[in-house]
Amino acid sequence: MKTKSVWTRKDLLGLEPLTREELELLLATAESFKEVIGRTVKKVPALRGKTIVNLFYEPSTRTRVSFEIAAKRLSADVINIATESSSVRKGETLIDTGRNIEALKVDLIVVRHNCSGAAAMLARHLRASVINAGDGWHEHPTQALLDMFTLKEKLGRLEGIRVSIVGDIAHSRVARSNIWGLTKMGAHVTVCAPPLLVPPGIERMGVHVTSSIEEALDGADAINVLRMQFERDTGEAFPKQLEYFKTYGITVERLKKAKENLLVMHPGPINRGIEMASDVADGVNSVILEQVTNGIAVRMAVLFLVAQANEPEKKSEKKNGTKR
Amino acid sequence: MKILIRQGRVVDPANGIDEVRDVLVDNGVVADSGRQITKDADTVIDAAGKIVIPGIIDMHVHLREPGREDKETVATGTRAALAGGVTTVLAMPNTDPAMDGVENVRRLSDIVGKTAVARVLVSGAMTLGRAGREPVAAKDLKRAGVVALTDDGSSVDDPEVMKAVLQAAKEAKLLVICHCEDRGISGRGVVNLGYMSTRLGLQGIPRQAEVKRVERDIELAGMTGCPIHIAHVSCRESVDLIWRAKEKGMRITAETAPHYFSLTEEALADYDTNFKINPPLRTAEDVAAMRGGLKDGTIDCIASDHAPHTENEKEIEFDRAEFGVVGLETELAVAITELIEKHVLGWPQVVERLCVGPARVLGYGRGHLKAGAPADIAVVDPAAAWEVTKNGFVSKSRNSAFLGRTLKGRVTHTILDGEVVFARQ
Fold it and tell me: What's the fold here for domain A20-139+293-313?
């Protein structure tokens, strides 16, 4: 490990507050964990004796499973709580639920919630570590980290690369986390969406804004295509599915005008034929399944670093963060 | 009972007074004021280095009684008022039940008579159940003692209903206070629409939700000739609209709240629900416009929009938390800290907005210290710096937007009808 920085955060709530050094440390740590998950015995004892709760207030399969596998690879004990099976339906507040989980001597809570700011609120009230697995439209830091990890693995760097994020930017936590993370690492980010789905002031986050898919593809090293959620019920205007595919859908035809080795990414689950054609999702440019694999390494790194930082007795002696 | 307030700087803009004086209170009224009064008194308050102002008239206060006594009551709310130098409040009618009929108003007046420690003026709802559909019986409410009509908390969407309300209010000689919000535009928004809503991933409230409704209500006021008062102005464009209406000679008045002239949406960075307010905190430009409006008189009054909520209603997910903040105990200090200390307004102008303006808007004979006037007085230590803490509140609720802030200026004594009703220990 070349970097000298040490992870000191009890929680990972978003990429916005992180420094470039912290992002580099996360990615470098993930790199060493990626080697672990390629072994025949895919397990290290780093978090043996630790208990991790996945507290999911929104349906999610891939993120939850990815966190669960990551925790198990680190030898932690994992418990999953989904809204259906818990007392949250009985009207318990998020803070009370968190405090009860903490009283069970849980070290780390991974939380997914439909309200923006929910993870931050939980973190303020708990001594246990909180990892944001997606809060409302706000942030989804581990998704952005795995996107960045994949980009760095494929392109060798993040500095100076051109990444376009296409889709419903306004309601996307994946977009926000990617924007913060990538711009801090020196990448050029373009967001591309129908004007209705571009939130006001987004350019202040350091991105270029366009409504032209051709412009978004032109010269890009990678495109990150967001899932279009037509089932949203926010009372706001929303484009029609077919119309969207015609104007913004990623097709083989459109890719012809892009860089030949353009990376096509998607946080999943894909709506085939809505934001992306099937032959693109399964095509040579697609790194979508590699993203999923990298998600484990990235989440191992996050769990590991956050757990280490929240261990008071080790804080002083640990100088170099990642020795295992 | 004679009270002599000695050698304070008496700021009484209604009478053009701003100088060090003695004020003698006798038999509930201001008996005399002058450079030096040598008469005897039962109580002498040494006000050297302090400011002596008329008791504040806060025309936008949610006392929550009846219905939500867990948030605030007439008793606790009026005690909080006195601690903030406020001697008269106008109680908002969005109680449960709402103040939409004579019976309910009588019931509240009865509670006020028994438990209030400050003066409470009562406002009535504009429509039955505050539902925006059927106008209340304005004349009956007036006879029952209400001084204004408002559906505060919401706006009447149907312009025909609003017109009917304005006509009835005009005939009953009642002021109409407009909460200007087009819910068709504000929707489920929780913060100002702009960079902060984008950054935080929260649904935004477009400024047009307020501006369009201010525009409409001014237009309807013009058509009916009924005077209206625009509550809690938060947008620069609203100030412009009100200025233009006043220029045309219309009887439009307006208020803004301390949070709108001192805080911006940037305060929301940590999702602190004590900054979740409706209308939402806006931008630095809007804060500047509020200050400008207070300076040039486009905005007549400062009112707290004191909106107490329990911790259970605030310490939850941002989207689910209630809108609103308490303000009775901080409004004067925020005005001193943000307006006087920053040289936006002088003392006479601040007293004009806190006391004289509301009295004029409500046609209420207080807010000044002329000999013979009811002795409602606040004595303020302008140099006292104090930290706003949860435990420091007299109000039942602590949902303040200024928690943790050090404010300048604190009320040391509050006098109501010639009695010292509050003295800080």
Answer: Rossmann fold (3.40.50)
Comparing C-alpha atoms, which of B167, B145, B146 is closest to residue B156? B167
Q: Are B269 and A116 within 8 A, CB to CB?
A: no
Contacts of A135 in chain B (CB under 8 A): 201
Catalytic residue IDs of B: 305
Rounded to two decimals, the pTM is 0.94
Question: What is the CATH topology of the domain spanning B68-362?
Answer: TIM Barrel (3.20.20)
A313 confidence band (pLDDT: 50, 70, 90) = low
A90 in catalytic set: yes
So where are chain B's domains?
68-362
Q: How many CB pairs under 8 A join A and B?
A: 69
Measured CA to CA, the distance from residue B283 to residue B327 in angstroms comes to 20
For A201, nearest residue in chain B (alpha carbons):
B195
B317 and A120 in contact by Cβ < 8 A?
no
CA distance B187 to A171: 16
What does the pLDDT read at residue A85? 52
Over residues B283-306, the pLDDT tens digits come to 999 999 999 999 999 999 999 999
Structure confidence by residue, pLDDT tens digits, A227-251 = 997 765 555 666 788 889 999 999 9
Homologous superfamily of domain range A141-291: Aspartate/ornithine carbamoyltransferase (3.40.50.1370)
> Distance between CA atoms of B138 and B141, rounded to whole angstroms?
5
